[in-house]
Write a structure and sequence with these properties.
This protein has about 190 residues and is an alpha/beta fold. It is built from five helices and six strands; from the N terminus they run βαβαβαβαββα. About 35% of the residues lie in helices and about 15% in strands. Strand 1 (about 5-10), helix 1 and strand 2 form a beta-alpha-beta unit. The longest helix is centred in the middle third of the chain and has 19 residues, at about 65-80. It starts with a strand and ends with a helix.
Protein backbone atom coordinates (compact mmCIF):
# COMPACT_ATOMS: atom_id res chain seq x y z
CA UNK A 1 0.00 0.00 0.00
CA UNK A 2 1.25 3.46 -0.87
CA UNK A 3 2.58 5.47 2.05
CA UNK A 4 1.77 8.90 3.46
CA UNK A 5 4.34 11.63 4.00
CA UNK A 6 4.77 15.08 5.42
CA UNK A 7 7.05 17.24 3.31
CA UNK A 8 8.91 19.93 5.23
CA UNK A 9 10.69 23.02 4.03
CA UNK A 10 14.02 23.37 5.86
CA UNK A 11 15.10 26.99 6.42
CA UNK A 12 12.49 28.95 8.35
CA UNK A 13 10.40 25.85 9.05
CA UNK A 14 12.74 23.45 10.90
CA UNK A 15 15.75 25.68 11.53
CA UNK A 16 16.11 29.42 11.91
CA UNK A 17 16.55 31.20 8.56
CA UNK A 18 20.15 32.46 8.27
CA UNK A 19 20.43 33.35 4.59
CA UNK A 20 22.52 31.21 2.25
CA UNK A 21 23.85 28.81 4.86
CA UNK A 22 26.76 26.54 4.03
CA UNK A 23 28.05 26.39 7.63
CA UNK A 24 26.60 23.65 9.88
CA UNK A 25 27.76 25.70 12.87
CA UNK A 26 25.09 28.32 12.11
CA UNK A 27 22.19 25.87 12.37
CA UNK A 28 19.77 26.47 15.24
CA UNK A 29 16.49 24.59 15.39
CA UNK A 30 13.23 26.49 15.79
CA UNK A 31 11.64 25.78 19.18
CA UNK A 32 9.53 22.62 19.07
CA UNK A 33 10.74 21.54 15.62
CA UNK A 34 12.64 18.47 16.85
CA UNK A 35 9.61 17.27 18.81
CA UNK A 36 7.41 17.87 15.77
CA UNK A 37 9.64 15.58 13.70
CA UNK A 38 9.50 12.89 16.37
CA UNK A 39 5.72 13.16 16.50
CA UNK A 40 5.57 12.66 12.71
CA UNK A 41 7.71 9.54 13.15
CA UNK A 42 5.36 8.28 15.87
CA UNK A 43 2.37 8.88 13.59
CA UNK A 44 4.00 6.57 11.03
CA UNK A 45 4.36 9.30 8.42
CA UNK A 46 7.42 9.58 6.22
CA UNK A 47 9.20 12.82 7.07
CA UNK A 48 10.89 14.31 4.01
CA UNK A 49 12.67 17.64 3.67
CA UNK A 50 12.38 19.52 0.36
CA UNK A 51 14.58 22.62 0.15
CA UNK A 52 15.67 25.10 -2.51
CA UNK A 53 19.40 25.75 -2.30
CA UNK A 54 20.03 28.22 -5.12
CA UNK A 55 23.21 29.39 -3.37
CA UNK A 56 24.87 26.44 -5.13
CA UNK A 57 23.95 27.86 -8.56
CA UNK A 58 25.07 31.29 -7.40
CA UNK A 59 28.49 29.86 -6.44
CA UNK A 60 28.11 30.83 -2.77
CA UNK A 61 28.13 27.28 -1.36
CA UNK A 62 28.79 23.77 -2.64
CA UNK A 63 26.54 20.71 -2.77
CA UNK A 64 28.79 19.17 -0.12
CA UNK A 65 28.02 22.11 2.17
CA UNK A 66 24.28 21.62 1.57
CA UNK A 67 24.62 17.95 2.55
CA UNK A 68 26.64 18.87 5.66
CA UNK A 69 24.01 21.41 6.75
CA UNK A 70 21.25 18.82 6.15
CA UNK A 71 23.21 16.33 8.26
CA UNK A 72 23.54 18.91 11.05
CA UNK A 73 19.79 19.57 11.02
CA UNK A 74 19.18 15.80 11.25
CA UNK A 75 21.75 15.43 14.03
CA UNK A 76 20.26 18.23 16.13
CA UNK A 77 16.75 16.81 15.73
CA UNK A 78 17.96 13.34 16.71
CA UNK A 79 19.83 14.66 19.75
CA UNK A 80 16.95 16.81 20.98
CA UNK A 81 14.03 14.44 20.47
CA UNK A 82 15.12 11.17 18.89
CA UNK A 83 13.27 12.26 15.75
CA UNK A 84 14.53 11.32 12.29
CA UNK A 85 14.06 12.31 8.69
CA UNK A 86 13.47 9.72 6.00
CA UNK A 87 15.11 11.80 3.27
CA UNK A 88 16.38 15.21 2.25
CA UNK A 89 15.86 16.50 -1.30
CA UNK A 90 17.40 19.77 -2.40
CA UNK A 91 17.32 21.85 -5.56
CA UNK A 92 20.72 23.49 -6.24
CA UNK A 93 19.32 25.26 -9.30
CA UNK A 94 18.51 28.81 -10.36
CA UNK A 95 17.09 29.63 -13.79
CA UNK A 96 19.47 32.51 -14.57
CA UNK A 97 21.90 33.27 -11.72
CA UNK A 98 25.35 31.69 -11.70
CA UNK A 99 27.51 30.43 -14.53
CA UNK A 100 27.72 26.66 -14.02
CA UNK A 101 25.37 24.99 -16.53
CA UNK A 102 24.86 22.07 -14.14
CA UNK A 103 23.00 24.43 -11.83
CA UNK A 104 22.04 27.54 -13.80
CA UNK A 105 19.04 26.14 -15.60
CA UNK A 106 15.31 25.64 -15.36
CA UNK A 107 14.35 22.66 -13.19
CA UNK A 108 11.00 21.50 -11.87
CA UNK A 109 12.88 20.45 -8.72
CA UNK A 110 13.20 24.13 -7.83
CA UNK A 111 10.14 25.20 -5.86
CA UNK A 112 7.50 26.33 -6.87
CA UNK A 113 7.89 23.25 -9.10
CA UNK A 114 6.83 19.96 -7.56
CA UNK A 115 9.73 17.84 -8.87
CA UNK A 116 11.29 17.06 -5.49
CA UNK A 117 7.95 15.83 -4.14
CA UNK A 118 7.26 13.74 -7.25
CA UNK A 119 10.75 12.18 -7.01
CA UNK A 120 10.19 11.35 -3.34
CA UNK A 121 6.82 9.81 -4.24
CA UNK A 122 8.52 7.57 -6.80
CA UNK A 123 11.41 6.69 -4.45
CA UNK A 124 9.21 5.84 -1.44
CA UNK A 125 5.90 4.73 -3.03
CA UNK A 126 4.09 7.76 -1.60
CA UNK A 127 0.41 8.45 -2.23
CA UNK A 128 0.65 12.22 -2.87
CA UNK A 129 -3.09 13.01 -2.51
CA UNK A 130 -2.93 11.75 1.09
CA UNK A 131 0.12 13.86 2.05
CA UNK A 132 0.89 17.13 3.79
CA UNK A 133 3.44 19.92 3.43
CA UNK A 134 4.59 22.46 6.01
CA UNK A 135 6.50 25.51 4.80
CA UNK A 136 7.09 29.19 5.40
CA UNK A 137 6.68 30.62 1.88
CA UNK A 138 4.17 30.57 -0.95
CA UNK A 139 6.61 28.66 -3.18
CA UNK A 140 6.45 25.73 -0.72
CA UNK A 141 2.67 25.49 -1.04
CA UNK A 142 2.79 26.03 -4.80
CA UNK A 143 5.28 23.15 -5.10
CA UNK A 144 2.94 20.88 -3.14
CA UNK A 145 -0.02 21.77 -5.37
CA UNK A 146 2.19 21.33 -8.47
CA UNK A 147 3.03 17.82 -7.28
CA UNK A 148 -0.65 17.06 -6.51
CA UNK A 149 -3.53 19.48 -5.93
CA UNK A 150 -4.85 17.47 -2.96
CA UNK A 151 -1.72 17.76 -0.79
CA UNK A 152 -2.79 19.66 2.34
CA UNK A 153 -0.47 22.56 3.13
CA UNK A 154 0.33 24.48 6.31
CA UNK A 155 1.95 27.92 6.52
CA UNK A 156 4.24 28.67 9.47
CA UNK A 157 5.20 32.24 10.42
CA UNK A 158 8.00 33.82 8.41
CA UNK A 159 9.39 36.99 6.93
CA UNK A 160 8.14 35.82 3.54
CA UNK A 161 4.51 35.73 4.53
CA UNK A 162 2.20 33.49 2.65
CA UNK A 163 -1.24 33.58 1.16
CA UNK A 164 -1.58 30.24 -0.62
CA UNK A 165 -1.52 27.59 2.14
CA UNK A 166 -4.62 25.61 3.04
CA UNK A 167 -4.04 26.22 6.78
CA UNK A 168 -1.93 28.40 9.07
CA UNK A 169 0.05 27.11 12.03
CA UNK A 170 1.86 28.99 14.78
CA UNK A 171 4.89 26.70 14.37
CA UNK A 172 5.95 23.38 12.89
CA UNK A 173 4.83 21.67 16.10
CA UNK A 174 1.41 23.34 15.92
CA UNK A 175 1.04 22.25 12.28
CA UNK A 176 2.02 18.68 13.19
CA UNK A 177 -0.50 18.62 16.04
CA UNK A 178 -3.17 19.73 13.56
CA UNK A 179 -2.08 17.03 11.11
CA UNK A 180 -2.38 14.45 13.92
CA UNK A 181 -5.92 15.68 14.65
CA UNK A 182 -6.83 15.42 10.94
CA UNK A 183 -5.53 11.85 10.85
CA UNK A 184 -7.63 10.96 13.90
CA UNK A 185 -10.71 12.42 12.21
CA UNK A 186 -9.96 10.36 9.08
CA UNK A 187 -9.68 7.21 11.20
CA UNK A 188 -13.10 7.70 12.81
Amino acid sequence: MARRAVFLDRDGTINVQVGYCGDPGKIKLIDGAAHAVRKLNELGLLTIVVTNQSAVARGLITEDQVRRVNAEVALQVARESGGRFDAFYYAPFHPHEGDDPRYTKESDWRKPGGGMLRQAAADFDIDLPRCFLVGDADIDHQAAKDAHKEIVTFQVPSDYGGETADHEGHSLLDAVNRIAAMLMEDAE
